[in-house]
Structure to design on (431 residues):
């Protein structure tokens, strides 16, 4: 069973990762840093770098990350653990600066299915990337950006001005979710947001051509509860899974076959992008790796058929105040271990064999597991597992840690579950 030391190590690593992974770009960058620290090199795409014993990674379009470990006898087995780097949030629009009687606000839009009210009245910051003019118009200069301090807030309307607020209020994103950013006395020169960006990255305002910047809560992750049985943090969906995939791949001896951590972007908006799980990103890289090793494309297809994939994403824990929202016999609990997610609709990708394999690996890793099935009559969620396995026909199982308040600005998980997930991914990759 879980030791206090292992739980602390896993949570300390997760907390450190969460504080750096404040956007998909920063999640991919921090993942690349951890991989490099573990001896992985960044692959430039040339076949001569692919050989037995190689361990390398690829950053795709800034926000996705693929990592590969090629052991002895590369065709012995193909193991893939996939997760996503994005999370529901507010994204800054172009021409974002807005003034309302001296209040400087930012024009934003909703990304993903966020719980809007959870973003009110909390300190927020900004992170993402900025694209600037370069010597070649096809190669803009790109800089990642993280303000790393509270800058914005979305204030609630006082109860005195809306006496029905506690009966439930629908928040209009274009009106009610615009964050307060500054006080502006002079609106004459236009875009105070571009002025801010230029100052932050040390560039000329006119050199900035575009940006992808999102808001994030600045409060740090913490342990809570009488015996610190819980964790409260932003972005548990899905940085718990991203961190576990990286931790599992970087820990332990290199095994036979090919092991891969595939960290995609845009899962929260359907995965249908060049860096999403429904793209050819992973199949294309695997085909190039097989070619570099001297294997045929037919060999890759054959190995997919006998390979195995974990789609790692969070699951809905039973809510203490609304247990009726969960299935009557399959309801994961915080601290109860890994959730194995099943759906007859195949919104989760597992079948009977995949469930059996997942249970066997949990037993081998000595970690607890529990089943999650949507309550009949409720649609529930989905993950990238089914989309990825459609592009790469291989047996896939959806797993993850159970959490509460999924898609809120802060979510809650069991303090012991991250260590269990880390140990499972390590066992998956290395046995």
């Amino acid at each position: 069973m879980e030791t206090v030391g292992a739980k602390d190590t896993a949570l300390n690593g997760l907390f450190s990762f969460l504080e750096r992974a404040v956007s998909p770009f920063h999640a991919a960058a921090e993942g690349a840093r951890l991989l490099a620290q573990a001896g992985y090199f960044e692959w430039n795409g040339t076949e001569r770098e692919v050989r037995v014993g190689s361990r390398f990674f690829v950053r795709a379009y800034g926000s996705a990350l693929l990592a590969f470990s090629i052991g002895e006898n590369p065709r012995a087995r193909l193991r893939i653990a996939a997760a996503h780097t994005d999370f529901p949030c507010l994204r800054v629009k172009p021409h974002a600066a807005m003034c309302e009687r001296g209040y400087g606000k930012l024009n934003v839009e909703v990304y993903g299915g966020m719980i809007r009210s959870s973003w009110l009245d909390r300190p927020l910051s900004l992170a993402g990337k900025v694209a600037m003019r370069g010597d070649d118009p096809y190669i803009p200069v790109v800089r990642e950006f993280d303000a790393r301090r509270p800058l914005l807030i979305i204030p609630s309307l006082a109860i005195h001005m809306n006496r029905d607020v506690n009966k439930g209020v629908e928040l209009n994103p274009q009106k009610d979710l615009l964050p307060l950013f500054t006080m502006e006395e002079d609106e004459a020169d236009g875009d105070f947001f571009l002025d801010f960006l230029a100052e932050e990255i040390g560039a000329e305002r006119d050199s900035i051509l575009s940006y992808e910047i999102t808001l994030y809560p600045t409060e740090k992750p913490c342990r809570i509860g009488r015996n610190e049985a819980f964790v409260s943090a932003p972005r548990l969906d899905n940085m718990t899974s991203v961190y576990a995939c990286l931790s599992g791949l970087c820990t332990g001896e290199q095994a036979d076959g090919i092991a891969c951590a595939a960290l995609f972007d845009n899962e929260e908006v359907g995965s249908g992008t060049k860096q999403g799980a429904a793209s050819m990103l992973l199949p294309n890289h695997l085909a190039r790796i097989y070619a570099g090793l001297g294997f045929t494309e037919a060999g890759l297809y054959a190995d997919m058929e006998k390979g195995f994939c974990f789609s790692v994403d969070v699951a809905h824990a039973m809510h203490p105040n609304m247990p009726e929202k969960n299935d009557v016999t399959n309801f994961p609990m915080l601290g109860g271990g890994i959730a194995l997610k099943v759906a007859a609709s195949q919104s989760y990708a597992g079948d009977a064999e995949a469930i059996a394999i997942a249970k066997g690996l949990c037993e081998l890793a000595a970690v607890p597991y529990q089943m999650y099935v949507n309550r009949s009559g409720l649609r529930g969620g989905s993950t990238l597992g089914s989309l990825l396995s459609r592009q790469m026909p291989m047996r896939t199982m959806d797993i993850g840690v159970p959490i509460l308040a999924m898609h809120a600005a802060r979510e809650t998980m069991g303090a012991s579950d991250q260590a269990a997930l880390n140990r499972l991914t390590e066992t998956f990759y290395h046995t």
User: Anything to note?
Assistant: DSSP finds ten helices and 20 strands in the chain.
